[in-house]
Write a sequence for this structure.
């Protein structure tokens, strides 16, 4: 895990988890919408399998990025508010905010996967 | 849901009001952070998750559809038009559809499938007392199944803004006992030209039949609402006025005053007497 | 008091320093007389923007009162059906497009530079151009109602009602073209704000010290960049159908009205959060001040802002729950709609936690803030309800939704905004608004609002649909509507009290202190009398520098920090690094000019002429706009400074010129092109959308073939390579080589465009016949229009090079154009691959 340095010198890492959520959301929607438009009600299991696979992949990626964020945050050894005028605190802040976003994205991915339990077809 | 919502609102606002009291002791920052985590994030996440699950669980049951091959019941095709409803009952045996307008009758206790269409702009079909709404979109056929559990007369407004007289586009849904419904439908299947009144000839002579259909006469027009059995409907003009003589007369004379933007031209150039004759003939179509 | 002391002290300064101060004052001086309107400074532009948006709000409010009066009693004939429809359409349009979004662009333009410790935003002329575009477009759209020609198809403009000339008149064109123009202004503001927040913060203001307002605005500007372009793409399809009968939404020729709904709500739902987040941002500034402590949960606010920004893009179909889409699709959007409530809840709890951890002074801004929160929470709770599909099937398009959205927008946006007006008014006029009038206004607005809108929940649940101009008596809606109307007038009275308080003359009142609320953030260094923002740009070491950095105000006012003088008579601000705000460059910013007004007026002319289908006038205005913008760029940008570096004070020397990713221009181009790419992606979405809804989406219509699209693709790639070559050669010092490469790139662009055009042309694709040729043509036209802009840029670089204004060291234009061409190449490759291979090769 040393490939990604602890000190992150970019703002983009903050958006990793929400981007994974957005990708997962769009992929689920597109898969179901295209399948329903093109294949009718046949073989909905394909959609279900696809969504399960994408959900697991998305959760795994979010957990990974959450772990990286946790590391950047020093595994919780420092409490917020991280408001010192130093690069260290700026880094800790980034780590903590990223971790929070990972949490939110994790929950949101679960929400989006929830319909799978209850809806098993394309009916409108 | 409203009660739970009210409880949450009271809790949040209570906290807020408490927070504004100047004399209280400020709480520790760590406790405040924990409040954000539990009150703002953790508890709402859980509650929303459960609520979402409940709603998703409800969904398939609320709008079940007869799968292909099972569709053997009555299907009612409703087409939205500016600003009225074209109705066709397709009997289960695939016989000739029975045409009507602005009134829908359905049997109590049987699931009825609606085919919802539009020819001009988007409308939305809704009987608030019986279930949720479904849009009628040009180029698409939407399906909706409804189950009336007790007899009654319900109001059905157009729920999607569709132009000038959107507010004046409603229909009446009448839920009847299945036997009575069957009887009603059978009567409708047989044309009834109505009493041989002078109004019928005036109606036909003035070209009303070019737009309106009255079963059993030469009036075969499909532009405007089907007027067969008009007298048996409670309202005219898609729910605008009650079906009484005066209302029918004024609608014939000045449809635009009553229903701005409707396609029907004014007929007030006809002698008052003729209008009255048409009105009483139409009202007699039952 | 501080100010007074500082002034006395300043008068006692040695004359050299006084001269320095006078010079700085002169450089930043606002023009007087009619030339006042040529100012581009953020303070004036922000105020005009805000004033105009408020005026539009009052206009929209009058329309709302007309609507409410009509609905007071059943079968009322106060308004005709048609006028009522115009009024409610315009009410929604004005409030959303001319008030809610622009007011925050206004607040941001006004507040951000002082809050970040900058003298000015990086592109003042772009900001002014945006304002003038907004004003012209807004007046055009609003004015239409006085000619009985206002749009009347609802603010959502659903086809076919709005696209078919049989159902809607010129109002639809006015809506579409007037607002497209305003959308351009919004995107311009977004570019300006993003670059400003990322690159113009005071030295030391690391991202963990940035004021929360800036965090919110950064996210909001990013959202504008992804939300508005789909609407612009939709507008293009829409107007092509209205003007030239291309059948994008006509189902008889393969189109589909639902595509518009997708594009509109991909814009429309994020829009709600684009409106809401900046209001919450104001609360995030107000709450700490009156709790007398730093915010608790700074990172949580960042989480909430970013989280909401993303999640809000996954909600759009919840406006389409009744359109008959598969339930599984609805369910995904229902899930995301529930999830977005989490970050929203976090924000509310951050405020409560901050207040609990501090000692609250319950002032007028807090009153409005708390009242707004109480209203907003109700709107949020009903939002959670309507996000559930089964509930929405009942509530959709009823007055329940009207109640919900007003609770959200008025509680979540208008009340915090008024709180912001009361809070920040001293920065405009150095006076405090009357607390007594403020409290009166609050209680009128709060009571009036609830009386007006709470009953609407009930009328909605009783089956009252939206957008009805009348209703029959005796079905349980009568007295609910009457109460709503009475409440609306009480609410309006409250708004009038606020307006009166703001506009009443106050020159006799004593001047307020420089920081009357004892706030901790940097904007309170600003003095309304001075146009320079801050006397000197400080070094920041805290989230609340005025609380934590001793004597900061005094030292700033004494000119103890950076850029205390303007020796070269130029307006300057500092450019710093994104994460840690290390000073990087001294940026010279533009001064007063008429070119922004001229450009906006000419561009407005294009849109107005198009509305009335005056093709010649549109063409002439278009040429005029292009010339004006080229002149603006030629004379106003890319200037070669007289020296390489400059002493900015405190012993720091900074370069005066930057190109490539170090320059703000490069960032602006990048951000603009991201927005542009989003619009393009929306068109591509349209292409595949049509594919999904038809078994064979070409319906036997001819395609463009494979040959020409592939040739066009290759030539565009070659043009891109030549463009990159030109930049490289110029950087290596071989200027002639660079010029040759530019000419080659230009010629390749022309050839590529011709090849792109040849595909659909040679195969005689008729765009009015079916949606397949129409969407192919639109994609080709999009690519070719971008190629045309790209070729103008190539010629511009060539001309700059020949004129000696583009040299080896001063090559920002080449960098920016090369960046444009990266996006151009992506656009071309995707366009021609899609039309040439899909479904052609299948």
């Amino acid at each position: 895990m040393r490939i990604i340095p602890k000190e992150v010198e970019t703002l983009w890492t903050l958006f990793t988890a929400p981007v994974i959520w957005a990708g997962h959301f769009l992929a689920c929607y597109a898969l179901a919408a295209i399948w329903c438009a093109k294949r009718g009600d046949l073989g909905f299991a394909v959609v279900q399998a696809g969504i399960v696979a994408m959900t697991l992949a998305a959760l795994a990626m979010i957990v990974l990025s959450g772990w990286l964020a946790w590391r950047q945050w020093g595994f919780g050894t420092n409490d917020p508010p991280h408001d010192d005028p130093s690069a260290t605190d700026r880094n800790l802040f980034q780590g903590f905010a990223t971790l929070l976003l990972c949490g939110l994205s994790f929950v949101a991915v679960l929400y989006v996967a929830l319909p799978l339990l209850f809806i098993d077809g394309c009916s409108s | 849901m409203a009660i739970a919502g009210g409880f949450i609102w009271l809790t949040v606002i209570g906290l807020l009001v408490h927070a504004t009291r100047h004399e209280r002791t400020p709480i520790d920052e760590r406790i405040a952070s924990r409040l954000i985590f539990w009150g703002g994030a953790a508890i709402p996440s859980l509650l929303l998750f459960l609520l979402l699950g409940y709603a998703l669980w409800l969904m398939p049951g609320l709008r079940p559809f007869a799968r292909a091959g099972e569709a053997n019941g009555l299907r009612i095709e409703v087409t939205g038009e500016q600003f009225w409803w074209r109705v066709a009952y397709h009997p289960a045996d695939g016989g000739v559809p029975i045409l009507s307008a602005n009134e829908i009758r359905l049997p109590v206790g049987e699931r009825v499938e609606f085919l919802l269409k539009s020819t001009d702009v988007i409308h939305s079909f809704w009987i608030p007392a019986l279930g949720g709404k479904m849009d009628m979109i040009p180029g698409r056929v939407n399906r909706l199944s409804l189950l009336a559990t007790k007899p009654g007369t319900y109001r059905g407004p157009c729920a999607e803004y569709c132009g000038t007289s959107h507010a004046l586009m409603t229909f009446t849904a009448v839920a009847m006992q299945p036997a009575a419904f069957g009887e009603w439908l059978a009567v409708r299947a047989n044309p009834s030209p109505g009493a041989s009144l002078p109004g019928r000839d005036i109606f036909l002579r003035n070209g009303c039949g070019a737009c309106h259909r009255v079963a059993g006469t030469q009036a075969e027009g499909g532009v405007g609402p089907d007027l067969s059995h008009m007298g048996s409907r409670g309202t005219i003009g898609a729910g605008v006025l009650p079906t009484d003589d005066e209302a029918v007369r004024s609608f014939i004379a000045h449809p635009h005053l009553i229903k701005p933007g409707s396609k029907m031209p004014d007929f007030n150039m006809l002698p008052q007497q003729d209008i009255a004759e048409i009105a009483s003939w139409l009202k007699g179509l039952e | 008091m501080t100010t007074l002391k500082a002034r006395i002290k300043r008068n006692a300064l040695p004359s050299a320093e006084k001269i320095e101060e006078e010079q700085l004052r002169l450089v930043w001086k606002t023009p007087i007389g009619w030339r006042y309107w040529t100012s581009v400074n953020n303070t004036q532009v922000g105020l005009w923007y805000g004033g105009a948006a408020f005026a539009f709000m009052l206009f929209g409010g009058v329309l709302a009162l007309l609507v409410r009066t009509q609905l007071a009693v059943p079968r009322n004939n106060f308004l005709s059906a048609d006028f009522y429809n115009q009024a409610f359409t315009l009410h929604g349009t004005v409030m959303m497009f001319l008030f809610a979004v622009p007011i925050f662009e206004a607040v941001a333009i006004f507040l951000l530079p002082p809050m970040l410790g900058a003298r000015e935003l990086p592109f003042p002329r772009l900001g002014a151009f945006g304002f003038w575009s907004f004003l012209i477009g807004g007046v055009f759209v609003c004015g239409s109602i006085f000619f009985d020609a206002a749009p009347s198809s609802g603010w959502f403009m659903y086809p076919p009602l709005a696209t078919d000339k049989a159902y809607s008149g010129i109002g639809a064109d006015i809506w579409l073209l007037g607002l497209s123009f305003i959308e351009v202004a919004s995107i311009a503001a977004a570019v300006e704000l993003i670059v400003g927040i990322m690159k113009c913060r005071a030295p030391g203001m690391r991202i963990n010290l940035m004021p929360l307002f800036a965090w919110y605005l950064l996210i909001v500007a990013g959202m504008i960049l992804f939300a508005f372009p789909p609407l612009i793409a939709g507008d293009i399809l829409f107007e092509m159908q209205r003007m030239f009968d291309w059948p994008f939404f006509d189902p008889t020729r393969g189109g589909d009205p639902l595509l518009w709904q997708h594009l509109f709500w991909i814009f429309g739902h994020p829009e709600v959060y684009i409106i809401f987040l900046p209001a919450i941002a104001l609360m995030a500034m107000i709450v700490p001040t009156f709790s007398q402590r730093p915010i608790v949960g700074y990172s949580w606010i960042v989480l909430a802002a970013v989280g909401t920004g993303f999640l809000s893009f996954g909600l759009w179909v919840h406006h389409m729950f009744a359109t008959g889409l598969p339930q599984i699709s609805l369910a995904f959007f229902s899930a995301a709609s529930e999830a977005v409530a989490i970050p929203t809840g976090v924000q509310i709890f951050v405020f409560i936690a901050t207040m609990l951890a501090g000692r609250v002074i319950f002032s007028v801004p807090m009153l409005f803030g708390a009242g707004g929160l109480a209203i907003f929470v109700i709107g949020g709770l009903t939002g959670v309800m309507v996000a559930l599909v089964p509930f929405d099937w009942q509530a959709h398009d009823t007055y329940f939704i009207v109640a919900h959205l007003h609770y959200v927008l008025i509680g979540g946006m208008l009340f915090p905004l008024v709180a912001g007006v009361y809070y920040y008014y001293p920065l405009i006029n150095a006076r405090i608004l009357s607390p007594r009038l403020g409290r009166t206004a609050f209680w009128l607005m709060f009571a009036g609002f609830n009386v007006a809108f709470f009953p609407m929940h009930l009328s909605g649940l009783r089956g009252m649909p939206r957008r009805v101009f009348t209703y029959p008596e005796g079905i349980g809606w009568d007295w609910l509507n009457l109460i709503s109307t009475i409440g609306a007038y009480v609410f309006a009275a409250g708004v009038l009290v606020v307006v009166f308080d703001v506009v009443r003359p106050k020159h006799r009142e004593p001047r307020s202190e420089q920081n009357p609320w004892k706030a901790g953030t940097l904007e309170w260094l600003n003095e309304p009398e001075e146009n320079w923002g801050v006397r000197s740009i400080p070094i920041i070491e805290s989230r609340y520098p005025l609380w934590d950095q001793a004597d900061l105000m005094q030292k700033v006012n004494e000119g103890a920090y950076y850029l205390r003088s303007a020796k070269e008579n130029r307006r300057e601000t500092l450019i710093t690094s994104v994460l840690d705000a290390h000073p990087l460059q001294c940026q010279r910013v533009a001064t007063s000019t008429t070119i922004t007004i001229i450009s906006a007026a000419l561009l407005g002319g294009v849109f107005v002429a198009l509305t009335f289908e005056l093709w010649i006038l549109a063409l002439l205005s278009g040429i005029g706009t292009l010339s004006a913008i080229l002149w603006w760029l030629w004379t106003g940008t890319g200037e070669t400074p007289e020296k390489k570096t400059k002493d900015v004070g405190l012993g720091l020397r900074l370069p005066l010129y930057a190109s490539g990713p170090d320059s703000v221009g490069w960032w602006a181009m990048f951000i603009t092109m991201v927005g542009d790419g989003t619009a393009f992606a929306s068109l591509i979405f349209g292409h595949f959308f049509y594919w999904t809804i038809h078994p064979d989406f070409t319906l036997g219509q001819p395609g463009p073939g494979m040959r020409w699209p592939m040739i066009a693709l290759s030539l565009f790639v070659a043009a891109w390579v030549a463009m990159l070559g030109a930049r490289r050669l110029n950087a290596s010092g071989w200027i002639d080589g660079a010029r040759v490469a530019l000419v080659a790139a230009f010629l390749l662009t022309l050839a590529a465009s011709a090849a792109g055009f040849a595909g659909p042309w040679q195969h005689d694709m008729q765009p009015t016949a079916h949606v397949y040729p129409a969407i192919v043509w639109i994609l080709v036209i999009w690519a070719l229009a971008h190629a045309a802009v790209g070729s103008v840029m190539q010629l511009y670089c060539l001309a700059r090079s020949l004129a000696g204004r583009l040299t080896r060291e001063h090559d920002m234009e080449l960098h920016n154009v090369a960046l444009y061409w990266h996006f151009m190449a992506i656009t071309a490759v995707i366009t021609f691959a899609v039309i040439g291979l899909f479904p052609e090769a299948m």
